[in-house]
Amino acid sequence: MPFTLCTWNINSVRLREPIVLKLLQEEAPDVLCLQECKSPVEKIPMEGFAALGYTHMVARGQKGYNGVAILSRMPITEVGSEDFADLGHARHIAGRLENGVTIHNFYVPAGGDKPDREINEKFGQKLDYLTGMRDWFHGDKPQKSILVGDLNIAPREDDVWDHKKLLKIVSHTPVEVEHLAETQDAGGWVDITRQDIPDGRLYSWWSYRAKDWDAADKGRRLDHIWATGDISNAGHSSRVLRDARGWDKPSDHAPVFATFDL
To answer: Contact, 225 vs 195, CB < 8 A?
Structure first.
């Protein structure tokens, strides 16, 4: 059963409901994973999504902050959520499709502005969150699973617009990249996007601060689709919908897609 999956940090699902609907109408992924929904679950605008065939949802919500949701045209059953680093944040939800594939949707903490946990509590929380993910995957090795989300780290040199300039900028520092690699290794995760697109600069986020984000093109690949090794060969057709960054009242993230033949 082939299905297409999309992950998107929407930066408020209620504020940006129109562009979520646009994506669902024009791209029609079978599964849409959203992060930073900034909404209690009961206030996620499901009526419009359901009218387009997305009648299934598993989610964790939080008023004004964080929040993750998986919308699906196919039945999906919630199989849990974790609160890594005991932050009390809605940052993870997992659901299982009828074909037995488990989808983990993550929103890893951004980490603040200073890459030093001694002076920036948020950076320490980010590292601790990743450590919690790593230890969880070590203890309970995932199988037949897909992990998606805004992981808030651009790990490769060609995942950022300037590797040297960003080495001391949160999201591309060596300590973050190391923590992400340990998390990936612990679960035996394969980076599907880079399996499909192994070479060249690739971004999924462009700052709101840029007057002309498209011309400046100072992006970072913060949004990821991974799969466990037992199903990684089934993943293909990866892409970033860059145009969505230029839609009306956009998120600063663009949707990332992959298709799985499972």
So the answer is: no
- Amino acid identity of residue 37, one-letter, is C
Structure tokens at 148: 């998606």
Yes or no: say if 43 and 71 are a contact pair by the CB < 8 Å rule: no
Per residue in 54-112, pLDDT (tens digit) is 999 999 999 999 999 999 999 999 999 999 999 999 999 999 999 999 999 999 999 99
Walk across the sheet containing 189-191 and list its strands. Answer: 76-80, 92-97, 102-107, 145-150, 223-228, 189-191
Helix (H, G, I), strand (E, B) or coil at 126: helix
Q: Collapsing DSSP states into helix, strand and coil, what is residue 3?
A: strand
Helix (H, G, I), strand (E, B) or coil at 208: coil
- Helix (H) or strand (E) holding 33, with range, is strand 31-35
The whole-angstrom separation of Cα 37 and Cα 107 is: 10
pLDDT of residue 42: 97
Q: Which helix (H) or strand (E) holds 181?
A: helix 174-187
pTM: 0.98
Maximum pairwise Cα distance, the chain: 49
pLDDT band at 1 (very low <50, low <70, confident <90, very high): confident
Q: Which domains does the chain have, with CATH numbers?
A: 2-261 (3.60.10.10)
